[in-house]
Amino acid sequence: MEGVKITLKVNDEEHQVIVDERSTLLEVLRDKLLLSGAKEACGTGECGACTVLVDNKAVLSCLTLAIEAEGKSITTIEGLARNGNLTKLQQAFIDKGAIQCGFCSPGMILSATALLLETPFPNRIEIQKALEGNLCRCTGYNKIVEAIESARDKQNG
Amino acid sequence: MDSIIGKSVPRIDGPIKATGQAKYTVDIRLPNMLCAKILRSPIPHARIMHIDTSRASRISGVKAIITGRDTWDVRHGFVETPRYPADQYVLANDRVRYIGEEVAAVAAVDEDTAIEALDQIEVVYEELPAVFDPLEAMKPDAPEIHPVQISDLSESYKNIGGKCENSFGDLNSAFDHAHLIRKDRFEAQLRTHCYLEPQATVAQYDSNGTLHVWTSSMGVFRKRMHLSRALGMPASRVHVHKSWVGGAFGGKIDLFSHEFCTSLLSIKTGRPVKFVAEREEIFSCFRHGQPMIIDLETAVDGQGLLLGQKVRCYNNCGAYRGSGAVLIFLCWGFVVLPYRVPALDYIGYSIYTNNPVRAPQRGHGAPQIRFAIESQLDMIAEELGIDPIEIRLKNARRKGEMLPNGDPIRNAGLVECIEEAAKRTDFLKKYWENTTQQKESNYIKSGIGIGVSSYFTGTLIYPNNSAAIVKFNDDGSVHLLTGALDIGQGAETILSQIVAQELGLKMEDIHVIAGDTETTPVDIGSWISGLTLITGNAVKKAAEEARRLLFLSASRELDVDPTDLELQDRRIFVKETGKSIHFARAIARHIKENGGDPIIGHGYFRGLKNAATGPSLKNAKGAWSDSYAFDAQVAEVEVNTKTGKIRVTRALTSHDCGFPINPLLVEGQIDGQVSMAAGQAIGEEVLMKNGITLNPSFLNYKIPIATEMVENDYIDIITEKYERERHFITKEVGEGYVSGILAAISNAVANATGVRAKKLPIKLNPIYYEEKREEKK
């Protein structure tokens, strides 16, 4: 197969992969690196299920070419927990009932992680604004917003 | 003993879902796997004259192509009864009846090759006249989509896929003696589920002749039944595996062509095959909810007491019957459930049109019916000069009443639901204030509205029952085997809570093996609103059986009567003395004294125990359900009358869901339903023209986003208990609460503006509004 050899730094590990220039970051994460936490629910950047962090910013991996991500630090949902310990935000999602079917959860948690990195004390409106690009059909967003507020208070408390 | 039942314990699948470890069907990847794609009809109604796959099959990397010739006359249906035989083909035979109907399927080494093969399949169609509007399709001169098969249809209508008729009481007398009669037509739009995980199936036919299937569904046993029938294979050779499900909301229950085709392609190639639907494909070709026209005539006395109703429902069921014939029965039910109607004349028609097939969607008829009835009730109250609370309290069903089909309402907290909802929201004060400010010049208006609904809790449709197995390990920990499929509602969590409660265990002591047709017993599934009641009681009985055997051994070990014992933290205690032994000792003794039996509890449960079958879809006679949930919901809205923009600001759900096993999960169900209703009330609509979907994307079919979150409040009117040694009664909570709030939002908009919406979604035309306001002055 023709392709480009690139090095992707994903979850603090470097991976050399041969990719088609047209491949999206989502395809490479899922199909080459077998990191299936990032989901494809629309493939056109409308739902946020494929959200990952690129240099700590929330990015739609279905609209990002893999070759664009070379040299940057990519974090997927698989890279949040350290030594099996979940982040406060992941734990808050579980405790507050913010997860139902769970298909949006990886993207939702990563969008919220990026928010808390950039704005440590977001108010409710800022939280809702940060999640605008992440669709959830199960929860109505109520428990998701509560979970982020609870993680905000815990990390800063 | 500490109770774990009724507690908001976090869901047990939380950690694997929060870390991305949970494997959904789209994540299943098998070695040597092929990619499947489906060729769909571009024409709404046509004869297939010729299909040529020869060019496509010569493409390198194409491994198999199937068409209707391979599956001739293989039919399936949501219901398959003598009155309603299966009418849908797994692949079109000699005719297509909607844009998107499956014509051929390809398995290839990768997606690009599969798509190229679809392009190279030649199909010659001869176009036929098509019809899209249900009222047009009923006319005797309409194009025929299917011959009418209902032998007792007295009308000369065409394209009738289903008819449900029921009447009782003296309707003529009710209308003759009425103080007021209202006649209105209401219309509910085509809306869709928007489950986030696309429809997906992986199939692997192994060399031993077993077909392994992973599919995004709402119940593995129903899928197995359909697949084994359609493929002509014994159920024992169709193994539907568990995968996590990324939402369904009614849209993943039926058999889908892609599930059959993926399976057959795997059988033909001997390789694993995967199909994942594109989002555009889902919006354009897959099954949505059911749009409906409702003609509603209601007679009341001077105080607003219902005297009689005449109801006609026209359901646009699409090109095949789908769940349409069930829906028009359910609509009858949602008319008679919450309020006493002494006389009724009901007919529901399900009408074939050249549109995609329709499925259940959360509420399955209730949102449409309750929107109509609750809207009209407010209109009646206004005409009579009484308030929306009073008219509802007057007509609300109470404990001990009987439904027209003979089902008893054993418990009903509806009156309390309405009263508490009104009190908590200060409803009447706001309602009259808003009514006054309709005439004022401010353009941001506030509105408050109430809607009432009721929903059934499981009924008899395959699989009618659930069974469960609880098996002890040597150390006293437990495996629960259940066929239940957790589609996000938390099935595995509440079933574990029941086992923990019955066996005095902690949640972490229990491991659940679920949703696998080979290793777990049959299960009713996550789709008929009966899982907690039916599966929950099966699990409870299995745990009780395990406990009985455990106590038997422990009583010998401790030399007391089994009734003197209780359980906690894997220990068995003598109640009076506090003397105890570990589970492990009792289990070891049981194995020793019973020929090696390690203690396995087996439980089973079926609803409507004395009924041979479920209710009649033809005339709504016969038992329907064991228990009914009731709710009253209040919505508050803000309307910008200059732009027509509506915002749902707050919602209150006052509900009687029986005994809530996990209140946190109950709240989560309500949040999701309120949000879905808000979307359906003010924006969501699949727009179609001549069978073509005009807005097949999340950008153009707008579901609520985080900034449109509705602030929710809940009141739980608990009418049931969870008790030892008898089955518990819980009521459904997963889909009944879309309807009341949907109606409440519409009523709130009317309260804000004085303008009444009779069509969903509510569209406020600012110019029309101004005219109305001028009139009112």
3D structure, described in words:
The complex is a heterodimer of chains A (157) and B (777). By secondary structure, chain A is of the alpha+beta class. Chain A has two domains: 4-79, Beta-grasp domain (Ubiquitin-like (UB roll), Roll); 88-156, DNA polymerase, domain 1 (Orthogonal Bundle), CATH 1.10.150. In chain A, 33% of the residues lie in helices and 16% in strands. Chain A has five helices and five strands, in the order ββαβββαααα. A five-stranded mixed beta sheet of chain A has the order 2-1-5-3-4, sandwiched between helices. The longest helix of chain A has 15 residues, at 142-156. Chain B has three domains: 25-128 and 195-248 and 252-285, Alpha-Beta Complex (Aldehyde Oxidoreductase, domain 3), CATH 3.90.1170.50; 292-459 and 614-776, Aldehyde oxidase/xanthine dehydrogenase, molybdopterin binding domain (Aldehyde Oxidoreductase, domain 4, 2-Layer Sandwich); 465-606, Aldehyde Oxidoreductase, domain 4, CATH 3.30.365.10. In chain B, the strands form eight sheets. In chain B, strands 3-7-1-14-11-12-13 form a seven-stranded mixed beta sheet, with helices on both faces. A five-stranded mixed beta sheet of chain B has the order 9-17-16-15-10. Chain B is 29% helix and 25% strand. The model of chain B has no long low-confidence stretch (mean pLDDT 96). Chain B is α+β, with helices and mostly antiparallel strands and 777 residues long. Chain B has 19 helices and 30 strands. At the A-B interface, α2, α3, α4 and α5 of A face α1 and α17 of B.
Summarize the structure.
By secondary structure, chain A is of the alpha+beta class. Chain A has helices at residues 25-32, 88-95, 105-118, 124-130, 142-156, and strands spanning 4-10, 13-19, 51-54, 57-60, 73-75.
Query: Would you count the extended β strands of chain A for me?
Result: 5
The CATH homologous superfamily name of the largest domain in chain A equals Beta-grasp domain
Largest interface between protein chains, with number of residues from each side: A-B, 55 and 56 residues
Spans of chain A of at least 5 consecutive residues whose pLDDT stays below 50 are none
Average pLDDT, all residues of chain B: 96
